[in-house]
Amino acid sequence: MPSLPSQDPAAVRLAVVIPAWNQPGLLPEALASVLGQEGAPPIAAVVVDDGCPSPSTAAIALHYAAAHPGRVFLLRQRNRGLSAARNAGIDFVLQAFPDCRGIFFLDADNRLLPGHMARGWAALQAAPPGTGWFYPDINEFGGHANGSCAGDFSLLHLLVLNYCEAGSLVRREVFETGLRFDSATMRAGFEDWDFWLQAARAGFTGQHVPDWGFLYRRRPESMLAAAERQRDHLLRLLRERHAPLLRPAALLELEAREAPRFALFEVDRPGLRLFLDPARPEEAEVPAFRRRLLQAEQAPGAVHAPALCVFAEAAPLDLLRRQGLLAMVLWWAERLLRDHELVALEIAAAAAPQLSFEVREAPEDGIAGAALLLLGSERLLRFAADPLSPEVASLDAEAPLPRLARLRLALPGPVPPPGGGGALRLLQAEIAGLGRLRQAMAGLPRPWRVDWRSSRRMMAADARAAIGLGATLPRLPAPGKRDIGFLLPVFAFAGLEKVVLRQAELLRARGWRTHLVVAGALGMDWGPEIGRSFDSVTLFAGLGEDWVRHEIGYFGSALSRMQDHPGAADALGALAGCDVVINAHAVGCHALAAPLRRLGVRCLAALHLVERASWDAPHGNPHALAGYEHAYDGVLVISDELRRWCIGHGLPRDKLLLVRNAPGHAAEPARIAAALAAREARDGPLRVLFLGRLDAQKGIDRLAALIAATRSPGIAWRVVGRPVMQDGAAPLLELPIEPPVQAPEALDALYAWADLLVLPSRFEGVPLVILEAQRMGCAVVTTDVGAVREIVADGEDGVLVPGGLPEEAIIARFIETIGRLAADRAALRAMGARAAARAGALTWEDCMRDLLARFDALVPPPAEAAPRPVPAPVAAPVISGAGA
């Protein structure tokens, strides 16, 4: 190449940095391709000799520098690796060429076609300032593959695949922020991938430049081949360095912005809506969606289309939103569509105040009456490929469909009537419309480059899988809100559940979004309290069975098997969107705490009591937790007695937080006063109440003996409850059993009716039923077990029967106490009044004050939260050579 006139450094607008190590025979081709650029502004080439063992490298670069003064420069340094060589070139360019607007990185074995830098300059000039770098397609020489990198830039895609070639043009402003290539951690490879992620975290985006003229030499043995041999190791390093980008909340935000997961078609509503979170949809036009779907089929690495399509009728969809169940239904459908072609949802009215959720495979009634139909977009495309096929025609039949999953959700209260086929007709119309557009697009030319990248439809799932997550609940973080999940094994409106309801209600009033996750059942008690306390409800028991193993647990306690369970990734996905998760006795899920904490979720365990086995040995949830304590940020206990137990069993004191119980529902002062006044005025039989589960823990056999011994004209009994543990003890009672009540007014009416609450339990925590009865002025006689002593002062506002006596003595003491109080109503009323004063002073606000402070320390309120960290720039290298 003939010599060119000398070039003033002040005129340089673009620079090409060429790291050189042991490729002296190819370096002249790279330099010649830079010097041969046409139509570009002034360019300088900077060769960085990275301690090359061949003297020819420096000699060739010096020859070019002498022949083209001001256009070619040589830097020399001891061997420090590719990243350090690029950084040396960057620092030189920034200092030597004050008006240089961009730096292109060209490896010594690659080339540029003559118009390359002119097209790069035009792209840089036209792009907005936030566009930090410009990347090419891969045009190979030496090999035969030509790879396409077309499509809009996607950070989500970049998290799972580096499709930005190191041979890219980077805007000067990127380097002026201090960003450099990592010359330490990523020295073995993937340093360019790491740099693009650094730039993205600093707020820059990339831009593809089509037909740019970059030529990539591919040889079977190269630095890239060496890096691929260490791929797993390098990926781990990369993910550790960029963990903030891989936090579940960050991934959800990216997915919502770049790759909405769902396309929703609604009956009687024009257009469609695209969303990740159904609460934040974007309107779209059907023709544009169809075209995009077909383009994504043709170029899956370049064009994104939603992975899942939903066809729905309006009324059931609105019901699911109002009840906080839509995210759960979508999450279940996403999981089921891995192995099924179609998911149909039916909503039915429940006979009892309970929610039930059922999953059936290939049901006999096909999709008849379905309110929602869900299928993958790939499946929709296959239907559209042949809209007249028997497979599509069979959708009309009320018969089993192969690979169909039918969900049945039963809810109390009014529900929409069974679907009238509108969702199916909408699906069929979309199949026909897609089919027509496919035919119209059949003759269009196809790209000649191979789209080698993974599908954008799957990039969010791939990114989640990289951090151990399966399907995540489609729920985005809400501005100014924090999310907390309460994880329970079952939900049956017992004491533990009522504590969780009150805690969630208070947190919701303090600006948190609250979520109930039930791990052990596909059903739960349901009532208005759910909507007041929780923003969403998720049931995931169908992920698998046998999550708890008892035979080899820590000191004989239960052992969580979730870490080895195939459903664990999906279970994590149901919880990973929370800032805080409280595990309240879900023993099978203890193994989820450690991976959740690695994802940035704060995890706490809640303990309510030490259970006892059938042979009266201490056993249960606290014992199981002791084996997993290190995985939790804290442990909530409801009593001093339980706190002492935990300390005695090795749980750290500073992890234990005392959160006492208050009554399980609010009561109007007038209602309390009326109950106290009515009790003062009445006479007649002593009214004795038992309210609780009819099982061995509550001493149901003892209760039967008490009733048999005391039931008389002078003592009237009422028993309210139901068997929960199914231990067969309930039939011991010889009087009618009233069903449990949930409404606060009905509960307070029971307490107001009673003069005395009797609770002959074998073990307890801090029973809410005692606090609720006390508040209404009802005295309590109970066994002195658990932490009952902390809420009942013996002889002052109740009577405690020692729990360590022989069975006969315990029953005799209860009988004697009931008889004594029946005979001395004045003492009983005074006891009740003192109980009302004690329990009436308890509030959840006071009980949770320390817990709220702990939450604020673990997850600062949004206004006080620190901004997401940006990685510190890698220190610039010392340049050990001179430019010529």
Low-confidence stretches: 865-884
Which bin fits the share of residues in helices?
Answer: 25-40%
The structural domain count equals: 4
Question: What is the overall pLDDT average?
Answer: 90
Describe the strand arrangement of the main beta sheet, using strand numbers: 14-13-12-15-18-16-19-17-22
Class computed from helices, strands and strand pairing? alpha/beta
Strand content: 15-25%
GO molecular function: glycosyltransferase activity
Enzyme class: transferase
Protein name: Glycosyltransferase
Domain Glycosyltransferase 2-like: 16-129
Keywords summarizing the entry:
884 residues, alpha/beta, Spore Coat Polysaccharide Biosynthesis Protein SpsA, Chain A, Rossmann fold, 7-stranded mixed beta sheet, 35% helix, elongated, disordered C terminus
Description:
The protein is α/β, with parallel strands linked by helices and 884 residues long. The chain has 4 domains: 9-246, Alpha-Beta Complex (Spore Coat Polysaccharide Biosynthesis Protein SpsA, Chain A), CATH 3.90.550.10; 249-466, no CATH class; 482-658, Rossmann fold; 669-842, Glycogen Phosphorylase B (Rossmann fold, 3-Layer(aba) Sandwich), CATH 3.40.50.2000. 35% of the residues lie in helices and 19% in strands. It has 31 helices and 35 strands. A 9-stranded mixed sheet has the order 14-13-12-15-18-16-19-17-22. A 7-stranded mixed sheet has the order 3-2-1-4-9-6-10, with helices on both faces. A hairpin with a 4-residue loop joins strand 7 (138-141) and strand 8.
